[in-house]
Amino acid sequence: MTSPQHSDSQIHPNASANELFTAACARVLACGRPTAPRGLPTREVLGSSLRLTDPHDRFVDLPPHRVLNPAFAVAEALWILSGSGEPWIHDFNSSLAAYVGHGPPRGAYGPRLRSWMGIDQFDQVRRLLLDDPDTRRAVLTIFDPARDLADERDIPCTLGHRFFLRDGRLHMVTSMRSQDVWRGLPYDLFTATLLLELMAGWIGADTGHWHHEVDSLHLYEPEHDSARQTGRWHGPTAAPMAPLAVGWESFDALLAQVIAGRRVGEAAWDDLADVMASFRLWRRGDRDAARERAGGPGPMSAALTRWFALRLARATRAS
Ligand SMILES: O=c1ccn([C@H]2C[C@H](O)[C@@H](COP(=O)(O)O)O2)c(=O)[nH]1
C-alpha cells in the first residue's frame, strides 16, 4: 500500500537551484507528514527524487526569504573537497558548533572521501570512469557502519554519490538518508554540484544532471512559515557560476591556494579565493577591506557583497 508520504514524490526536474529549493519546500509543505525525531517536530516526505539540470546554477538565493551565507557555502565545499576535517570551518559559521560540537566535526565528509583507510575515493572513481566509461561502479561512500550506527552527534546525512558517463555527459546521483530542506539542501547542493563539475573535467566529459535521492526530506516546524513565503518569490535567478576546472594533478595545490584566499589567475577560482579572504577580513572586523576584497565581478563575490549589506542593514535596525 502506498502511504501519503510516498505518493508522487518525484519533484520535476529544475534548471536552477532556486527552482529546486522552492519546489522542495512546496512539496514538503503540501505532502509532508508530522514526525519528531530527536524530539524536534518536522514535516517529512519519504522517498523523494530531485533533479537539477544545470548544476552550474547551484546557489540558492531568494531574498528576502532565504539568503545563504555565500562564504559558508564556498568554504564548506572547499573544506570537503580538499579532504579536510580540520575545525577551521567553524570560522565560517558560528552556528555549526550547535550541530556538530566544537573541534573537528566527527562526521566530516572530506576525510572519508579523500582518505578512507588510505584510499582517495576521488582518484579511484576518476580512474574507474577513465578505464571503463560505461561503468556502474563509480561509487563514493561516506556512511561508515563501523562508526555511524551509533547514538552520537553529527552522523553523516549524505550516504554517498555515484557517477554515470553517458553520451559524453557525466551525471551524478547523491543519496541522503536525511535532508533538512531549509538549512541543509542549499549547502549540500552547492558542494555536490561542484564535485560533479570537477569530476566531469577530470575525465574530459561535459557536466550532466545532478540527481538527488532523499529518504527523509523535511522542514522543521519553526521554518514552515518562511518556507511558505518562498512560493511568492518571483525575483531573478542568481547568476550561475562560471565553469570551474583544474587538472587532477594540480587540484590539491590549487585548492590549498584558494582556501588560503590567494588568487590563482583564473577568474572562476579567484571569485572563490576572494570570498574566502573577504569573509576572514569581515570576521576580524575589517569591514572596509572585506567589502573591497569582495568587490570583483564574480557571482559569489557579488552574493557576499549583498550579504554584507544585509548584515549591516540588520545591525543598523537593531541599534
Ligand atoms: O549534510 C547535511 C547534514 C545534516 N543535515 C540535516 C538533516 C537533519 O535535519 C539533521 C540531522 O539529524 P538526524 O537525521 O541525524 O536526526 O541535519 C542536512 O540536511 N544535511
Explain what the structure shows.
- The protein is an alpha+beta fold.
- The protein has a single domain (17-229, 237-249), classed as Thymidylate synthase/dCMP hydroxymethylase domain (Thymidylate Synthase, Chain A, 2-Layer Sandwich), CATH 3.30.572.
- Helices cover 42% and strands 18% of the residues.
- The chain contains twelve helices and eight strands.
- The strands form two sheets. Strands 1-2-8-7-6-5 form a six-stranded mixed β-sheet. A two-stranded antiparallel sheet has the order 3-4.
- It is globular.
- The structure holds 2'-deoxyuridine 5'-monophosphate (UMP).
- 2'-deoxyuridine 5'-monophosphate is lined by residues 37-38, 155, 157-158, 178-180, 184, 188.
- 2'-deoxyuridine 5'-monophosphate binds at residues 37-38, 155, 157-158, 178-180, 184, 188.
- Helices and strands, in order, run as HEEEEHHHHEHEEHEHHHHH
General form: globular
What is the CATH topology?
Thymidylate Synthase, Chain A
Based on the coordinates given, report the CATH architecture: 2-Layer Sandwich
Question: What is the H level of CATH, i.e. the homologous superfamily?
Answer: Thymidylate synthase/dCMP hydroxymethylase domain
Provide the structure class: alpha+beta
Number of helices: 12
Largest sheet: 6 strands, mixed
**Low-confidence runs of at least 5 consecutive residues:** 1-7
Radius of gyration equals: 19 Å
- Cα end-to-end separation: 56 Å
- Compute the number of strand runs: 8
Mean pLDDT: 94
Number of domain units: 1
Strand order of the largest sheet: 1-2-8-7-6-5
Helix content estimate: 40-55%
* Proportion of residues in extended strands: 15-25%
Q: Which ligands appear in the coordinates?
A: 2'-deoxyuridine 5'-monophosphate
State the name of the first-level CATH class: Alpha Beta
